Each structure stands twice: as structure tokens, then as C-alpha cells.
Amino acid sequence: MDPKDLINRVDEKACLDFLSMMVQHRSHSETEGEKELAKVMAKELEALGVVSDLQAFDDGKGGTRYNAIGTWKGQGGGKSLLFNGHLDTNPVTEGWTVDPVGGIVDDKFIYGIGVSNMKAGDAAYFCALKTLKDAGIKLKGDVILTFVVGELQGGVGTYNAIKAGYKADYFINSEPTDLYALTMHAEGSGFTIELTGDTRHLSKREEAVDAIMAACDLIPRLNAMTFSGALSPAHESINRVHCGVVHGALGRNLEEWRPPQVADFVVIRGTARYAPGQTFEGAMKDMQVELDALEQRFPGLKAKLIPKDRDNVPNMPAFEVSPESPIVKAINKAYETVRGVPQPTGVDIPSRFYGSDAGHLYHELGMQGIVCGPGGRYNTMPDERVDIVDFIDMIKVYMLAMIEVCEVA
């Protein structure tokens, strides 16, 4: 069957209805709704006629979480392709003007919490496989669809799927990139900084060592950092530090009832992003240089760096693939068939600062893959939404990528 005839078989309404159904399941991370959606996806995979696995794993807190994984067995002789996406979502924030779990569709967008991050990607590869099966296509290689949870806790769902033996020759991670082919993203690691000063009453402020003033000096310097050892300008472009939590007051208990006194203690929490070839240890060493310089600028200040991420949550490793890799070429070819123009490819988008489960597939299994999914422009914000045309085109791109990688039997 001609590729253009095949992609014209996509039932746009049915695909949007399927995505709406997913959005209507409130699957906030580590909730019962997350478990329910995983069970729904396992049943949908079973109904599709593929091998369905509702994979249970320990949540580390005495409970159970679930991944839904489907395998479309090939006829033999072809390469295998694994699709990866997560079902868990962030909580709903303030500022929404539409029902965040309504799955609302208008003439341009589909709306909902998690629709960009990343249920549209999940639904796109499910619908791609369904369209191929409904068309009677048989492939030589296996296609594996993974609908994992716990991405927002460092990728524990994908990590447990890997431990259970799921792997393939190539992968496509469907994090939202606005259909851009992302070939590299950063590793993300958390840190805490404690600044200890010396308090005085405001009447003797000149004698104090003001921890809040030191923090105000330090944070812009951290946020402007790049790290040593970048392998190329492209690698350096995904270096970033962000300080997301700052609390200053009196003492380690951060007493706030006495503002006339100079604050002598500040806690800063943040994240560092660095590229393949750079290390957590190297990034922390570079940050320590900044803290040593801070102590020189604020005599008497003690600055302590605690290089620690969240307890019981793995770091998301960096990810990289050569633009010449067969999986990159396959998705580039599929995109150009669908849209008639070359696919933007590389690292020049905000998604390069993501952490994603692509890092686990790359780091743990050495798999070559690509990060490419619908959504991104309106990701993780009030009235989160995805362009309908991007969702439908992504289905078509995934269909052709399956055929290119796995080959028609």
C-alpha cells in the first residue's frame, strides 16, 4: 500500500475521541486515578489484539503502581521498535478557563491536564498501531507500546519496565517537542545550598553577615552558569542551573516572627542540567567554585553545597543520538512524507532541558532513539492544549516510522 494512501486511513474523530477518553481520566502522579488509567490502557491493548501486560511494581512506599505495556509481535526478520510515554500528570494549577479533565475539543485544539505532557503522544502511537492493524498491515519486527507511570518521580515506571526485560532495537519517546526531532537532552540532578550568616539587630546591620543578601548575590550567578567539560557548543547549550526554592529567616528552623533581625540562614533548592560527557560530580565541583567565591565576597559567611536529589528517586540520565542514526533518519523520512518539508532536527528547542525516560533507555540499555512528540507550545500551563493538526500528523509519522523500522512482512 502506498504510504500516502495508508496515512489517509487515519480516523481523525476516533483518534480524538480516544485521546479525550485518556484526558478524562484524572491521572495525577501517585494517585488512584493513575492506576485506573493504566488498567484502562491494558484493556485497550488487549482489545486491540496485542499481547497486553499490566506490569505491577513496588512504589517504594508499601504500595503498587502499574505500567501498561503492549507488544505487537512481528512475523520475524525485522528490527523492533519501542514507543515510550507516561500516563501520570502534574496537578491542576490556578488559571484554567476550561474543564481540565473534560477532554474538550474545538476547531483547533484538544484541551486537558496532561494532554501535552504527554497523553497526546501516548494516544498517537496507540492510534498509529491500530490504524496499521485495521489496514491489515503485518510487520516483520515487533512494536512495543509502553504506557508507564512515575516519569514525574524520575522515571521509575520506565526503569521498572527495563528491569522486567522490555527492550528493542530502537525507541521513540513521545515527550512533547512540537514534532521536532530532539537528538539530545540534559541530565537533571537536584541540589541544596545552605547559607549561614551572622545575625544582628537592624540597628547594627553593618556588623551582620546577611544570608539573604548573599543569596541575592549568588542566585543570578548560579542561574547564569555553564559547566566545564562540554564536548561541543551544542552540548554546552543544554547546561543550565535553576534555583526554584529559596527560604531565608532566623536559624535553621527559619523563624519568621522577628523581621527586625538580619536573617542568618537561607536554604536554596534547585536543579542542575548538564550534557552527555559531563558528570554530576563535575557540575557540583563547578558550583562549589561559585560558593567559594561567595564566601570571599561575604566574609564570615559559610556556604554549604549538598549534592543530593530527592530521596528514592533516580536521576534522569542525559540522552544523545547521532543525527545519522537509522531511527533519526526513519522519523525524518516519515515527517517529510507527511508534511512535505524536512523535519527540524537537533537540540535547538526548550525541550533540550527536559529530563525524560529516553535517558533511561539510552543509559541502561544503550538503545538508539529519538524524542519526538505532539504538544509543547502550551505544555504544563493553564488551559494546557495540543494543536489537533499536530496530533493527527504525529499519528501518521509514527505509522510510517513503524513501517520503515520494522518493515512490512
Helix content: 25-40%
N- to C-terminal distance: 12 Å
Mean pLDDT: 95
The total of helices stands at: 11
Overall 3D geometry? elongated
The H/E string reads: HHHEEEEHEHEEEEHHEEHEEHEHEEH
Show unreliable segments. Answer: none
- Largest sheet features: 6 strands, mixed
Tell me the strand percentage band. Answer: 15-25%
Order of strands across the biggest sheet? 1-2-5-3-6-15
What is the β-strand count?
A: 16
* Alpha carbon gyration radius: 24 Å
What class would the helix/strand composition place it in?
A: alpha/beta
What can be said about this structure in brief?
By secondary structure, the protein is an alpha/beta fold.
Can you characterise this structure?
The chain contains eleven helices and 16 strands. It has helices at residues 3-7, 12-24, 32-48, 115-134, 156-163, 211-223, 233-236, 280-297, 326-339, 358-365, 388-406, and strands spanning 51-58, 64-72, 81-86, 109-111, 143-148, 170-173, 181-182, 184-185, 187-196, 240-249, 265-274, 302-306, 319-320, 345-346, 368-371, 385-387. The strands form five sheets. A six-stranded mixed β-sheet has the order 1-2-5-3-6-15, with helices on both faces. Strands 10-11-9-12 form a four-stranded antiparallel β-sheet, with helices on one face. The chain starts with a helix and ends with a helix. 47% of the residues are buried.
Fill in the keyword field for this structure:
4-stranded antiparallel β-sheet, 16 strands, alpha/beta, 409 residues
